[in-house]
Amino acid sequence: MTSSTVRRWAWIHKWSSLVCTLFMLLLCITGLPLIYHHDIVHLLGNDAAAPRMAPGTPRAGVDEVIAAGRAMYPDKIMMYMSQEVDEPDIWNLTLGDNPTDPNYKPIAVDARSARVLAEPAFEGGAFMSLMFHLHVDLYAGVPGKLFLGLMGLLLLVAIVSGVVLYAPFMRKLDFGTVRRDRTRRLKWLDLHNLLGIVTLVWALVVGATGMINTWAELLLNVWQTTEVAEMLRPYQGMAPAPATASVQLAVARAEAAEPGMKVAFVAFPGTPFSSTHHYGVFMRGDTALTARLYKPVLVDAQSGQVTDRRSLPWYLVALLMSQPLHFGDYGGAPMQFLWALFDVATMIMLGSGLYLWARRARAAKAAAQAGASLEAA
């Protein structure tokens, strides 16, 4: 590699790193508690737990579950109902003043007894809500997400350019060498390079999946204006009609249409994941991978008949697969611990990069001042 090529890659690495480092540090700090989101929410008592019952206890009807939730807020309407993969005995209901109410009321209802268990804290509580929004959108909505996506792209550029620069440098040293007997700056440079290589694959995976996640709204809009619009074409121009079909019937018809799959969530008429004429019943698989992938089934809210169902397009599949991979949700506690370990190592790597830049800038300034003093003398 020629000296001019090295300088070019060094310039790319320097500026891509400097621009994104502070934001990447913020994402690493806020991402650490999000890795253990469910554990922290449970520890703070902001979730709901289903009581123990005998195995095989029959489940209450879906309509009965909805009635229990609506009894708490009779003036509100149903927006969504969902079940977590690891909490099959709880229905999570979302009620609001309108189908897109941002100040919705979450209610947890026992799926077997149809008894209200709790009203979970909004977004898992104040602390987790703060961590989530700082990590996802900086409290700036879609523009904030896209900005963080750009920072993620710069991170990937910094990683690639760092690898290009690191390869010829390490031909002179054994892998993992940290020259502790040299200057502090050299010691931190070696540590920075070592942590960069150790966390390389993890940072690429988390950076790439994080960038994909920032496109979620854009990808959903593409899906809604293409495939969903095609699914709803027979209803085009029709006035909204009241939902008279039982939700239990809609769920049963969706389960019959997709045997072997389970209900992940139900979107009620008027919400972004349904239409003014339909229940959107989103089915999922029962394996670690397919449980993250949804298949929408549209059920006419008046007749209870399935009107359309189809697999999600590849770009939404990529989005759904990237979300749990970003936070290490696939492999349980061991993978969460590994993700947390790499997260901390990345924070140290980013911090050492800022330290090295500051030391170099200070040295350059001192040299310039010394040169000016000599010229004046």
Commentary on this structure:
The protein has an eight-stranded antiparallel β-sheet with strand order 4-3-2-1-5-6-7-8, with helices on one face. It has helices at residues 3-35, 37-43, 62-70, 126-136, 141-169, 184-198, 200-213, 216-231, 247-257, 314-327, 332-376, and strands spanning 77-84, 87-96, 105-110, 116-118, 262-267, 278-284, 294-300, 306-309. The chain has eleven helices and eight strands. Among the domains are: 3-39 and 142-211 and 333-376; 48-120, Nuclear Transport Factor 2, Chain: A. It is an alpha+beta fold and 377 residues long. The longest helix has 45 residues, at 332-376. α1 packs across α5.
Strand order of the largest sheet: 4-3-2-1-5-6-7-8
How do the SSEs run, as a string of H and E? HHHEEEEHHHHHHEEEEHH
Biggest sheet statistics:
8 strands, antiparallel
Approximate shape: elongated
Pfam families: PepSY_TM (PF03929)
Transmembrane segments: 12-36, 146-170, 191-212, 337-358
Protein name: Peptidase
InterPro entries: PepSY-ass_TM
